[in-house]
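hey so u asked for the seq, here:
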Amino acid sequence: MRSLADYERCFIASFERFYGPIESWSLYGLLPSYLEREGSSLVYMAERMIVRSRGGGLYLHDHDRLLDDMAADPGRKILLGVTYALLDLAEKGVRLPADTVIMETGGMKGRRKELPKEELHRILCQAFGTETIHSEYGMAELSSQAYSKGDGLFYTPPWMRVVIRDLNDPFEPLPVGRSGGINLIDLSNLHSCAFIQTDDLGRLQRDGGFRIEGRVKRSDIRGCNLLVQ
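ran it, structure tokens below
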């Protein structure tokens, strides 16, 4: 990334494409594994979004403080949480304020058994008493993010594209509805590679959205908290 200002413009534009002005939200980040490592692009994104939002903060394991701060906040709220941390919170049997958008990101990162998105969202919806779970899909290699407002269906901003590849022939793109490896094109990567091949599995929808169906078999587990210090 040549400029952090460029990165900030990209992730703010991605967010506001789907959720409107960031100043109308409070953002609470439950990101323990990321906060415990230096140099996380997700933590940087969350920190800068919090500065520009109307309130919020980052939290490690202090669930009581998080819940108290959210209860005292009268505005619209987003709880952005790494998946296993949201499950930890859900197991405490808490209820979040009714106007809270729960947004999961990141996955289990080796802390828990990986779950299909449908099962994960069912558990979180039941635990928190909400009808939908939102999701953010991004990575350090990208300047932009895709978002899902429910049902595990993601959409990209117009400067991103998703291509599904055949796992047996990486030069063969697959049509709508076929499951394969997710390739990403992010034109915001102005000074780095705009074409990223991931080990995530997914499929395209006719309306331009895409679903994530897990990881390619025998692929490495990814996550900044898995780095060896």
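The helical segments are 4-19, 32-35, 41-52, 63-71, 83-90, 117-128. The chain has two domains: 4-152, 153-215.
lmk if thats what u needed
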